[in-house]
Structures are given as C-alpha cells and as structure tokens.
Amino acid sequence: MIFLKLFAESFVFAFSALRENKLRTFLSLLGITIGIMTIIGVFSAVDTLRNNLQSSVDKLGSNTIYIQKWPWQFGGDYPWWKYMNRPEPKIRDFEKLQDRVEGADGVAFEIGIGDRLIKYKSNSVEGAQLAAASNDYYKTRIFNFQDGRYFTDGESRAGSPVTIIGSSIADGLFPNENGIGKIINVLGRKVTVVGIFEREGEDMLGVSNDKTILLPLNFAKNVIDVEDERYGPQITVKGKDGVTVTELESELRGLMRSIHRISPSKEDDFALNKSTILTAGLDQMFTVVNFAGLFIGGFSVLVGGFGIANIMFVSVKERTNLIGIQKSLGAKNYFILLQFLFESVLLCIIGGLIGLGIVYLLAFITKAAADLNIVVDSGKVIMMFAISTTIGIISGIIPAFMASRLDPVEAIRSK
Prior knowledge:
Helix content: 55-70%
Strand content: 15-25%
Number of strands: 10
Distance between the termini: 34 Å
Mean pLDDT: 82
Shape: elongated
C-alpha cells in the first residue's frame, strides 16, 4: 500500500510539473507527436492500400489458375521473344482440358473484346467492357446478381443472343426502369438482357463487373475470331474443394504439355498464372514500404526523444532546490526517480495519443470526403503505447537517476 501511495504521489507530482510549464510541455510533445503520427499514419495507409489490393486479388480466386500466353511475373534470363512466340490459348485446348482434367470444379474459355459505346434508344454508355465466356464462367468467377439470372446451358451451347450487364451499364441505359428483357445492340447484333450484375464498385486493380457486358462464347464466335490475340483469350480453371492450387497447377501443366505435345526436354509454351503470384509481389512491396515508414517515423521519434531528454535535464536543474527539500523531509531516492521518470513517460504517451488522434481525424475526413475506409489496426495502437513508453523511459532515466542521487544539503543550497 505504501508503494502504491508513493507511486500515485509520483504521478501527481509529474502531472503537476507538466501542467505548470504548458509551453515547454507543448514544445516537448511536438517531436513525439509527429513521430507517432508518421509511424501510425504510414502503417495505416499501407494497411488500407494492402487490404484494398488484396480484396481485388481475392476476386481472382485463391484456388483458380489462369492459362495464358504471358506470365504475370517475369524471372530469370527468359528472353522476351520466347514469350512473344508462344501460341494463344485455343478453344481446342479448352475442350480437351474439359474432358481430361480431374481436379477442376469449372473450366472456362474467356476473352475481353474491349471498350465499346453501348446505346439503347437515346441513352448511351461509354467504356463498356465487352467480354465473352463459356458456360462455366459462373464457376470460375465470384459475382452476384442484382436482378435476373445467368445463361442457361442451352443458351450457352446454342450461342443465343442474350447478355448479362453490369449495374453501371444498366443505370446508364435504363434509368428508372428495369433492364431485364430489354434488347440492346452489341457487336452489331441485337441481344436481350437476361441478368444484371450486383454493384461492386471500382477496386484498385480495376476488377469490377459494373461496366461489363458478358456474352455467351458461342454467340461471340459467330461475330468475331475469339482466338485472335487482340482479345486476350485465356482458359480459367477453378479447383475442386480439397484440391490445392499446387496440385491443380501440377495437373494442368502435365495436361497442357500433353495437349501441345511438348517433349520433356523443352520448356512450357504457356503460363499458369495464379493469385499467389500477385500476393507474393504485394508482400515484397509492402515490406519495403513498412520499413521506410518505420525508419522515417522512428527518426522523428528519436529526435523527439532527444528533445524530451533535454527538457528533463532542464527540469531537474530548475527543481534541484525542491528535490533537496523533498529528500530532507524523508523522500526516498526511488520516489524522486519515479517522479521524473513518470514525467518523461507521461510526455511521450500524451504526444503519442495526440499523434494517434490526428491519424483518426484524418481517417474520418478521408472517409467523409472520398468514401475510403482507412484501416487503423489495434495492434498499431498497442505498438504506439509501447514505443511511447519506451522512448519516455530511455529519455528520462538518466535525468531521473541524477535527480535521485542529489545530496539534499547541496540541493537546498543550489537556490
């Protein structure tokens, strides 16, 4: 109980000293405030960016492999012209994979036809992303419907003139009315809208169905050459539950080499792309960014720590006479030490709280102005308290120790 009482009295003394020297306290807080604000702000910005990018990557599917001509990641000394000479995925490859693959839940052939202007009566929408896919598209992609339905198996096989459109396309073409059943002109042909994708919003990788117009692959085959490299043909394969992406990748590599009749001594003439490639790249990038933020913020906190240490030395000098009086009245050395140590730690924690408060304020303003959720991780808040406390102890321990070792008689005479 005596120790707790001394502990509380030390805290009260420290708080009173800070309150009596408001300007000095404010100036001392600046360095720590800026440092903590920089560290938490950078980490929060990085976490926000990472979460947004990761959510975009997640749309690609964690157990989905994209068979394409070009890899998403280049490595080694592989000459670019070897990639250039690779064949584009063919419908023949797709059909043979469908028949042979065992670890897949869905196999789809997809193309992207590009930006087009779409009109319906007097309304039009620019930048519509036309795409065509085989029937298993719904198995390999993640999406929901705002209204309507997906293609039936019969519509996909027959290449029926039907389409599914994004919510932004629907809003632009059919304001204040239901677009299901409406007939629009796509690729010079009349097609009927049978479904509308649920609104997703634009993500950081541009992966969104909001401005997509999806057509059955067999319909597009009657209008364009779906194997033309201009349309970026690809085969998308979604693994079954329980089949790892590594197992699926191994099976697909063997099947594609067999379909293309590649001898064991030759390299693949196709790329097996997966979301883990992008995730690994994000990990490397954000490791560097986190280190840079920690370095900049740490340097600011270090400068603030030196400032607080300097203030503490000045504080000990100013209160030498008071220290002598306290010791002459029976104050123990550890009471004096705790008094100054608490003052230093309290300065750092207050500075950290102010820095954290500024980050939360900026996050609120960003949310209100740009509708962007800033992630302030609770772990980073705990880290802020740990950093502030550590800097406070380091900055105040030497001045506090010097104060505790003062001779009471000499200290009283100092005035």
